[in-house]
């Protein structure tokens, strides 16, 4: 039996399949096209036949589609993660500043429930200090400061170590966090701490 598909009887947007009809072949449209001659573009976005993330915009193209994460999200369009520069919580407490002395008989505060992206603003300062903060500052016993430099915008998200001071050593213990430069301010992906420890702010 002669394979008529050798003569390539189908249009460019179709695949020839031998058999299936009296002509000895049929033309199956490639994904993204439909119609008698496979020239009609399938709008996957309108039909909901796409793999774009719910936080992405589907953009129809001829024969296919593109996914673009919406503002406030980053990724390839099929995976979109909230950008901390747009989605963060502000830390505003004045007693979080590195020059705030913890009252001798007052309560010692702790960041036992902080998870996610945070920004220092207002009375709390504008960023985390990068030089050692003495113990019993920032409204807590073990004061947290960034052991490293702040990143540039081009650095993206960087891993940094936060040290928590006691009176004897420079670093009673450490925690790894992520830091990002959003252009005019910094954000920090913080992890919860045991009591009594807290992240400090400064100007």
| Biggest sheet: strand arrangement | 9-10-14-13-12-11-15
Q: Sheet with the most strands?
A: 7 strands, mixed
Q: Please count the helical segments.
A: 1
Shape: rod-shaped
Helix and strand element order: EEEEHEEEEEEEEEEE
Helix content: under 10%
Rg (C-alpha, Å)? 29 Å
Cα(first) to Cα(last) distance is 83 Å
- Strand segment tally: 15
The percentage of residues in β strands lies in: 25-35%
Protein name: EGF-like domain-containing protein
Pfam families: D8C_UMOD (PF23283), EGF_CA (PF07645)
InterPro entries: D8C_UMOD/GP2/OIT3-like, EGF, EGF-like_Ca-bd_dom, EGF-type_Asp/Asn_hydroxyl_site, EGF_Ca-bd_CS, Growth_fac_rcpt_cys_sf, Nephronectin_domain, NOTCH1_EGF-like
Domain EGF-like: 1-39, 41-81
Structure description:
The chain has a seven-stranded mixed sheet, with no helix packed on it. The radius of gyration is 29 Å and the shape is rod-shaped. The protein is 2% helix and 35% strand. With 203 residues, it is mainly beta. Strand 13 (173-181) and strand 14 (186-190) form a beta hairpin. The termini are far apart. It has one helix and 15 strands.
């Amino acid at each position: 039996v002669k394979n008529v598909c050798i003569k390539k009887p189908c249009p460019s947007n179709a695949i020839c399949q031998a058999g299936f009809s009296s002509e000895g072949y049929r033309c199956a449209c490639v994904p993204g096209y439909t119609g008698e001659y496979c020239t009609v573009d399938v709008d996957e976005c309108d039909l909901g036949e796409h793999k774009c993330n719910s936080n992405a915009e589907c953009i129809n193209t001829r024969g296919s589609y593109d996914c673009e994460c919406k503002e406030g999200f980053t990724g390839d369009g099929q995976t979109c993660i909230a950008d901390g520069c747009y989605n963060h919580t502000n830390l505003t407490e004045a007693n979080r500043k590195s020059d705030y002395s913890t009252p001798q008989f007052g309560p010692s505060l702790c960041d036992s429930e902080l998870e996610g992206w945070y920004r220092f603003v207002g009375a709390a300062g504008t960023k985390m200090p990068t030089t050692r903060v003495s113990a019993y500052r920032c409204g807590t016993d073990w004061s947290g400061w960034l052991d490293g430099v702040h990143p540039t915008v081009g650095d993206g998200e960087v891993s940094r170590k936060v040290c928590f001071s006691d009176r004897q050593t420079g670093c009673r213990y450490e925690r790894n966090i992520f830091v990002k430069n959003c252009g005019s301010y910094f954000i920090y992906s913080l992890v919860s701490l045991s009591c009594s420890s807290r992240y400090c702010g400064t100007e």
